[in-house]
Amino acid sequence: MLPYAPFLLFLPLLVLGQDGGLSGPTTSTESLGYSCDTSKCQLPACNCASTSPPGGLHPSEVPQFIVFTADDAIQSYTLDAVNQFLAHRKNPNGCPIKMTYFTSLSYTNYTMVTDWYVAGNEIADHTMTHVGTPPAEEINGNLIALNALAGIPLSSIKGFRAPYLNYSVETLKLLYQSEFIYDSSAASSIPVTDPNTDAYWPYTLDYGMANNCLQPGQCRGEPKLPGFWEIPMYSFFDKLGSRGPHLMDPWLDAANGASKINDQDTLEYMQSTFNAHYSGNRQPIGLYTHPIHLAANYPGVNTPKSTINMINAFLDWAQEQQNVWIVSNEQLLDWVQHPVPVSQLDRVSSLRCLTPQVDASAKICNGIPQNEDGLLSHCAFSDFPFYTCYGCPSQQPSPANPNPEQQAPSGQGLRHRLPSNCATAFWDPIAGNCICNSKTCTFFDNTRTIGPNGANLTGGGTGTTNSSQTPSYVPFNGAVPKSLVTAGVWPALILGFVGWLIGACLLGMSWTP
Ligand SMILES: *[C@@H]1O[C@H](CO)[C@@H](O)[C@H](O)[C@H]1NC(C)=O
Ligand SMILES: *[C@@H]1O[C@H](CO)[C@@H](O)[C@H](O)[C@H]1NC(C)=O
Ligand SMILES: *[C@@H]1O[C@H](CO)[C@@H](O)[C@H](O)[C@H]1NC(C)=O
Ligand SMILES: *[C@@H]1O[C@H](CO)[C@@H](O)[C@H](O)[C@H]1NC(C)=O
Question: N or C end: fewer C-beta atoms under 10 angstroms in the chain?
């Protein structure tokens, strides 16, 4: 255990230990009772739980996805922790890495949620106050508060993960009612090398759950939630196989039944599990983090440098192999819904990276640090003071009142909340004006053309945090790799805008990216 006491003030909920520990399989063949009619259940709306890749693709034509997620509060310390692993990396198409942040709101600095989202990452729901088997107000209050105070479009909050991975059938039904696209709380806990593996590709619940089948009311066809996806969380396994699963924050576990953490042992089993997936059916693997456990500069946290280096070494090693992509859940799900072979990955819009063109000198509170500088409101609540573009609420948001009345600072007007027909980066909450219309709202496409698609498509090992290092990914078409943007907290001058783009397209907005 790491010494947490000094900062319990800020983060009591984040640090109650490793939420999401597993001690063994969560499914058995008898409890499963799963059957799915593949003639009726077809993509993109329906997908049967299967260990084989979607769309009938052969594993050699399938990208190996590594999903990167973080849970709990978003604040400078947790984003710094994530950036240690991602800021200096790129995917094989030259785009910065995007990840999924399951956000809970206690101790969250709302403006940093805006920034992280505008930089192209996925923001998802983790309840307001971090409770297991949450009531509806905890789930829906998170949507309302993130929309009101962080300017996250409701349409782009697609996913949910239960705190402590503690959910019930009722939770899944609540998510379905609130029109979430997916849950990602269930575990795959049997290795892919075992004939009874439960490492299914993401699937819809048209025929019920196929993971966590030892939980009451799940599996054997229940619950039936048509079109609602489960993205299982894929465990790593040490030498004990199904008796040695490691799910969240695997680096906090001792491996192989030992009593002490050993980074080298962790690296070895992460690599061997990766190899089993990569040389098999290429089910995704996941790095599911609680970033506070990896914070390098949080007062009182003493994350061993060796652990941070080990995780980077793992990602370097993985990225040197062909067709390995580090992605958010929404990127993974987009590919699963529209599976194409690696030779056509340049068609997958969610893997591209687009930069909104906002004049660097514009003074507009829009989630881009250079634009919003000096425009944030400081909401001085005693639990955790936070900043926002959208005006301070008169009281702290709570499940009972997730969007309290706004309190205008003296001499200033009320801030305007994001309307559903404007994108966060183009919304001016002070003037109440969308600076984006079909003529003025444009994007740079920073995606590198994928030349001979599929040929030696690697992200390259760019894992040292040495920002002077040049990228080593393999270029296509003999193109010279563009130099990396200097790594830092905000490498996001190259902004990925894909999630927003998809959301905006659904709203029927028009412009030319
Ligand atoms: C909160 O956000 C503000 C504005 O970006 C930043 O200056 C401050 O350091 C952040 N604090 C934390 C703890 O995240
Ligand atoms: C799950 O959450 C509920 C409600 O917070 C709690 O009563 C229960 O003990 C939790 N179960 C586990 C296994 O943590
Ligand atoms: C792919 O990589 C292999 C081994 O590194 C190399 O021999 C081959 O020439 C590469 N092919 C292309 C198209 O770059
Ligand atoms: C970073 O890279 C530069 C150039 O390769 C090298 O001179 C320097 O020693 C490296 N620094 C660290 C801390 O590795």
Answer: N
Q: Tell me the β-bridge partners of 381.
A: none
Residue 468 Cα to ligand 4 midpoint, Å, equals: 7
Average pLDDT over residues 324-348: 94
Tell me the β-bridge partners of 248. Answer: 288
Residue 470 in contact with ligand 4 by CB distance below 6 A? no
Q: What is the mean pLDDT of residues 467-484?
A: 36
Per-domain residue ranges of the chain: 49-351
Report how far ligand 1's centroid is from the alpha carbon of 111 (Å).
8
Superfamily of domain 49-351: Glycoside hydrolase/deacetylase (3.20.20.370)
Of all protein residues, whose CA lies closest to atom 12 belonging to ligand 4? 466
DSSP-derived pairing of the beta strands 100-103 and 64-72: parallel
Work out the mean pLDDT of the chain and round it to a whole number: 84
Whether ligand 4 lies within 6 angstroms of the CB of 469 is answered as yes
pLDDT tens string 256-289: 999 999 999 999 999 999 999 999 999 999 999 9
Q: Which residues line ligand 2 (CB under 6 A)?
A: 131-133, 164, 166
Beta bridge partners of 188: 234
**CA-proximal residue: ligand 1, atom 9 (nearest):** 76
pTM of the model as a whole: 0.85
Decide whether any atom of ligand 4 lies within 6 Å of the 465 Cβ: no
Write down the pLDDT at residue 355: 80
